[in-house]
Write a structure and sequence with these properties.
By secondary structure, the protein is α/β, with parallel strands linked by helices. It is built from twelve helices and 16 strands. The protein folds into two domains: 138 residues, Four Helix Bundle (Hemerythrin (Met), subunit A), CATH 1.20.120.420; 202 residues, Rossmann fold (3-Layer(aba) Sandwich). The strands form four sheets. It has a seven-stranded mixed beta sheet with strand order 6-5-4-7-10-15-16, sandwiched between helices. The two termini are 30 Å apart. The protein binds 5-S-methyl-1-O-phosphono-5-thio-D-ribulose. The site of 5-S-methyl-1-O-phosphono-5-thio-D-ribulose (MRU) has 19 residues, from α3 and β9.
């Protein structure tokens, strides 16, 4: 898969620092940033230099492991106390993607088995590396299952960027397109630009074009017209948090696409790893929705496009109710409806 391998990795561990691909600068600049302090990691996540639920989790895990290497403590009790403090700090960077909390908590739990401070430090690094490696396998598996739902010649709409740079590799919603390309199956992707931060226009098109996958960019308000005139055959999106009943938070605009898909009789798929499923959150109403800076809406590429002082509402995510979701595609298989029982069952086998 030469084309995919040419897409830079979103996150890399380098023992004394973390390298991230600065997604704010794409597609015009391929810039890498070295994160050396806990504050750098927090800032990179909060300002979307690294973004996408799994990539946020991986970066935070490395950030916590990195910070812990410098703890100057003699007892495990002091170590755990400091670790919990840093975990809480990183967890405050963004509220919606549950992968952030999932990865941080997985690290904290992994350290509890250690019998010495040195052992705990090593354990944390190994656990963070494992989270990244597992995510790559997970995404490939999601891609295999998702591809089984598509046919040669299909025209598929997506939003935001749930691709290679939003994960360890392959992506979730974009994974089937890489696998299809590898196997000579032709799928045509329609990428919704994803106002206000333009992850679709800047990142999804960039990724897919590098891999030689057919992609057509549309603005968000062209979705209905595109479904009709281009005879879209399916919609596939990623997820930031899936509640226990299947309600799914994803990038703002996703809910609208699900409603349109229903109106057109088109299947609407959510592709996500188990690390995005939050059984502790009962329904979509319980998912915290991040509201971001008003400048993301009043400005376009640094230029003001709305009057000074205008009131802005800028939710970064919306929640698609479970009844609009045809299927949720995970690394353990595809589930169709009946989410209250099917989602917990995924964790049992
Ligand atoms: O605000 P972002 O860019 O982090 O939002 C990302 C999304 O909504 C993605 O669809 C989701 O995290 C899945 S990434 C595989």
């Amino acid at each position: 898969m030469a084309e995919l391998l040419s897409i830079p990795r979103s996150v890399e561990w380098n023992e004394t620092y973390i390298t991230i691909l600065n997604q704010q600068k794409l597609p015009f600049q391929t810039e890498y940033l070295e994160l050396k302090e806990l504050e750098d990691v927090w800032e990179a996540i909060a300002t979307l230099k690294v973004r996408g639920a799994p990539a946020i989790g991986i970066t935070a895990a490395y950030g916590l492991a990195l910070a812990a290497q410098r703890y100057d403590v003699s007892s495990m009790a002091e170590f755990q106390e400091q670790l919990q403090k840093d975990r809480d700090y990183l967890a405050s960077a963004r509220p919606t993607a549950v992968n952030l909390f999932w990865a941080l908590d997985r690290l904290v739990v992994s350290a509890t088995a250690a019998t010495s401070v040195n052992e705990a430090k090593t354990t944390l690094v190994h656990e963070a590396i494992r989270i990244q490696a597992e995510d790559e396998d997970t995404c490939r598996s999601i891609g295999e299952y998702a591809l089984s739902l598509f046919r040669d010649g299909d025209r598929i709409l997506t939003i935001c960027n749930a691709g290679s740079i939003a994960t360890a590799r392959y992506g979730t919603a974009l994974a089937p397109f890489y696998l299809a390309k590898e196997r000579g199956i032709h799928l045509h992707v329609y990428a919704s630009e994803t106002r206000p931060v333009l992850q679709g226009a800047r990142l999804t098109t960039w990724e897919l074009m590098q891999a030689g996958i057919d992609v057509t960019l549309i603005t968000d308000n062209m979705a209905a017209q595109t479904m009709k005139t281009k005879r879209i055959t399916a919609v596939i999106v990623g997820a930031d948090r899936i509640a226990a009943n299947g309600d799914t938070a994803n990038k703002i605009g996703t809910f609208g696409l699900a409603l349109l898909a229903k109106a057109f009789g088109i299947p609407f798929y959510v592709a996500a790893p188990l690390s995005t499923i939050d059984l502790a959150t009962k329904t979509g109403d319980d998912i915290p929705i991040e509201e971001r800076n008003s400048e993301e809406v009043t400005h376009l590429a640094g230029t003001r496009i709305a009057p000074e002082g205008v009131t802005v509402y800028n939710p970064a995510f919306d929640v698609t109710p479970n009844e609009l979701i045809t299927a949720i595609i995970t690394e353990k298989g595809i589930i169709r409806g009946n989410y209250e029982t099917a989602l917990p069952a995924l964790f049992r086998n």
